[in-house]
Design brief:
Helices cover about 35% and strands about 20% of the residues. The chain contains nine helices and nine strands. A hairpin with an 8-residue loop joins strand 2 and strand 3. Helix 6 packs parallel to helix 7.
Length: about 240
């Protein structure tokens, strides 16, 4: 019996193509397009912590203060141009409080149909679902501010925590998908297991993995059958063995 090759997952550019051009910029989105992504991920943050002010394309407030970020309106106008028409968007809402303003902007630019809104706060995603059931939603896990597993002082306790988290996540993900709360799970690569891949498929959802900047890891995740791989460098998709 001849085994079929694993299907190609969606190629998602993190912040556009953040290893080619500065992330969350129009130049980065253009670079992602040039390098053949299927989807562009971008971050959206309110100017002020209470959800007021401009909506900015930035990962966090320190990022926003450290440069002159484009506004969410500018980014959507750019991504609504004809050359981007074949691409999907993953709009990552970093904090709660302004999620319905994000929805209004997507509606204004007629981008609801090709957008997935992701985030780490289920309550914020639930408010979007109530307001616009047709908009796809992705639950980002685990909820972290930074990758603690890269810090040697916290690596061991963090990995111990992730062991328990990995064991519980498949059941939680499957339940949430079957209940219709989300359409996708956006999982850090450290918590992805074959059990999670199966659970997401059983729940009728899709599994996107972030943030993968290694060609061999891309190969392994492809073989596992994940639905999408998010990377800072879309050139790696062509370099995967």
């Amino acid at each position: 019996m001849i085994e079929s090759s694993p299907r190609r997952p969606r190629r998602v550019g993190h912040k556009g193509a953040a290893h080619i051009e500065p992330g969350n910029t129009l130049a980065s989105f253009d670079a992602a397009l040039r390098h053949g992504v299927d989807m562009i991920e971008l971050d959206v943050l309110s100017e002020h912590a209470d959800g007021s002010g401009r909506l900015l394309v930035a990962h966090d407030h320190a990022d926003a203060r450290g440069r002159a970020p484009v506004t969410f309106e500018q980014a959507l106008a750019h991504l609504a141009a004809p050359e981007f028409a074949g691409l999907e968007l993953d709009v990552d809402v970093k904090l709660p409080c302004y999620e319905l303003r994000v929805l209004d902007a997507l509606r204004e630019h007629e981008l609801v149909a090709r957008t997935l809104v992701s985030g780490m706060f289920p309550a914020a995603l639930a408010r979007i679902r109530a307001a616009e059931p047709a908009l796809r939603l992705g639950w980002s896990v685990p909820r972290v501010r930074r990758d603690y597993t890269t810090d040697m002082l916290t690596a061991i306790p963090a990995l111990a925590m992730l062991t328990g988290y990995r064991a519980a996540l498949p059941r939680r993900a499957r339940t949430a998908l079957l209940e219709g709360r989300f359409d996708a799970i956006m999982a850090h690569w450290r918590v992805v297991t074959r059990g999670l891949v199966r659970a997401v498929a059983e729940g009728g959802g899709q599994l996107y993995v972030w943030t993968v900047d290694d060609a061999r890891m891309i190969e392994r995740l492809t073989a596992m059958g994940v639905d999408g791989i998010i990377t800072n460098d879309p050139r790696l998709f062509g370099a995967a063995p």
